[in-house]
Design brief:
four-stranded antiparallel sheet; Threonyl-tRNA Synthetase, Chain A, domain 2; Diaminopimelate Epimerase, Chain A, domain 1; 8 helices; 43% helix; 2 domains; 305 residues; alpha+beta; five-stranded mixed sheet
């Protein structure tokens, strides 16, 4: 009943303050939601609607049930018009809201305890807002505080400093990632030149085939190294990382040596793994990294068929 009455109050607050009607609602075991018809909803809307709802709760107003026809309820100022005939049941919050409803409710708004608004997301033509009331609100606030306290401890800062410290850490990580990317590009260039020199073509008319095992290689680095190799004319590259079991098969665009995606899928019939790709490039990961060398030999044999 706390959640249902809280839904009435929150919907009424949005209607009173911003003329945002509630088009539907859901009362769940963990959280409840209302769907609002609004062009946009910003933090100010949430804060003011939450404050107004809690004001009505703290004033401990009477919640009563009223009966009447649709016309009588409309004349009394019902929030949502209905087309049904006969005597209708409405729930009235003293001096604040009157809404047709057949559900059970609290006797006074103060029994709702308090209301917290939660996540907001766009849902097609409406906005879905989560909320919790009463003991759920208390439990949620306690859980949020515990999470924030843990984050502050890990970051070695005060609770109020968590957003700024996280923002700084994210920016530093972004900068480091960019620097690492540039270093990987340089490394891939050096490694590609070395591999090209070590693997001359078997004949002037044949493509250059490079089958190479790296001790450690992330999927991103394998993709980068493969792309650097096949940027050269008439190159086939079959690459794998020993530690992680990552593999990459690539060929110079337009080279008709084989279908890299088909070879990967065929090899995975023998060596379990996940991945995919197209004609000129495919990539995946073996379930057993110890099979990386055998996988490369299998891919090489498939390329020759």
């Amino acid at each position: 009943m706390q959640q249902h009455t809280g839904q009435h109050l929150l919907s009424a607050a949005f209607s009173e303050l911003f003329n945002f009607p509630t088009v539907s609602f859901h009362l769940g075991r963990e959280v409840c939601t209302i769907d609002l018809d609004a062009p946009s909803i910003v933090p100010r809307h949430l804060e003011e609607a939450e404050r107004r709802t809690n004001q009505i709760i703290f004033e401990d107003r009477v919640v009563a049930v009223r009966y009447g026809t649709a016309q009588e309820l409309a004349e009394a100022g019902i929030r949502k018009q209905v087309d049904r005939e006969g005597i209708l049941r409405a729930v009235e919050v003293e001096g604040f809201d009157r809404q047709p409803c057949g559900g059970t409710h609290l006797a006074r708004t103060g029994q709702a305890g308090m209301l917290l608004t939660r996540k907001l997301e766009r849902r097609r033509d409406s906005w879905r807002l989560e909320f919790v009331c009463g003991f759920r609100a208390l439990a949620t606030a306690r859980a949020d505080y515990a999470t924030l306290t843990q984050a502050a401890s890990l970051l070695s800062c005060g609770l109020s400093e968590v957003p700024s410290v996280l923002g700084k850490a994210i920016e530093e990580r972004r900068t480091q990632h960019s620097a690492l990317r540039r270093l990987e590009e340089r490394l891939a260039g050096h490694e590609a030149r070395s591999l090209l020199a070590e693997h001359p073509p078997a004949s002037p008319d044949s493509p250059r085939l490079i089958v190479h095992m790296l001790d450690e290689a992330t999927p991103e680095y394998l993709r980068l190294l493969a792309a650097t190799l096949v940027a050269e004319s008439r190159v086939l590259a079959l690459l794998a990382g020993r530690s992680g079991g990552h593999v990459a098969l690539a060929q110079t665009k337009g080279l008709a040596a084989g279908d890299m995606g088909a070879i990967l899928r065929e090899a995975f019939k023998e060596f379990q793994g996940k991945g995919g790709g197209a004609k000129d490039f495919s990539q995946g990961t073996l379930a057993n990294p110890a099979q990386a060398q055998a996988f490369l030999m299998r891919a090489k044999n498939l390329l020759a068929t």
